[in-house]
Structures are given as structure tokens and as C-alpha cells.
Amino acid sequence: MISQLSNQDPAVAAQIEAVFQVSYPFEALLLNVPIAQFPPMKRTKQDFLHASTEFYGFHADRILAAVMEVRRTKAYVHLQSMVVHPDYFRQGIASKMVDFLFANYPAQMYKVETGAKNTPAILLYQQFDFQIVKTIQTPEGIEKVGMERKGI
Q: Between these two residues, 126 and 138, which has the higher pLDDT value?
């Protein structure tokens, strides 16, 4: 079940942080980036508490199994981040989250960024007709791709 998360609630922010902290080391490994130098690992509970983005969670047996962070602008919807707890990898949860995004955020354009070496994420987004439109080099030296999909 997918529902909006109240990230301003300290307990919920802590749950969001926990899923991020256990999930992102897997992406860091895919990208060949030391975990301590991977920017998403530096996000704290305070960052989630004060975020202006919207968070959605996928719960499996009352466990927060995945988190999606969305930022809406007048021009597009940006899938800011999406993480799945490793215990729930390869169960179709990320696909359900993307379906939820499209169903609940009608837009002219959708955008997402991911690591250029994160093949599972790129393939997921390509299944939903996202196209790579740019390559980005972060200040930390991580290569990312920007992907877009036209909406309604």
C-alpha cells in the first residue's frame, strides 16, 4: 500500500532516514563510490523533517519498504529520489511507485536523475518511457544521467 508520509513528524522522518541509510549503500556500490562520499548518505533526519518535497511510502506488512520523494513545479514533476529497502528488492515495488506517481501527479513532463552506472534504475525508468536527455557530473565526481518523459 502506498500512502503519503508526514515527514514533519520526527518519528516518520526517522523511518524515512532509516530506509535511505540502508538502501543507498547499494547504489554507492553500483556507482563505485565510497559510501562515506556518496551525497545521499549524508541526509539526516533533520533534512527530511525540513524538506519541502512530498514523500510517499510503500508499506509491506506495516514495514516501510520503500520511499519516493517528489517535487512538483509549474513546468514538470521531478522524481527527486526513490529507495527500496534491500529486503524488498526485485518485488516490483519501484514500478508500483512510478505508476502511483503518474496516477497522482498529472503533468506535461516528468524528470528523474540517477547514477549513470545504476543500470537497474535506468532500465526501470526506460520501461516507463523515460529517455536519457543529459549527462551530469556532480561536484563529487559522480556521473549521473538526467531522464525525461512527456506526460499528458
A: 126
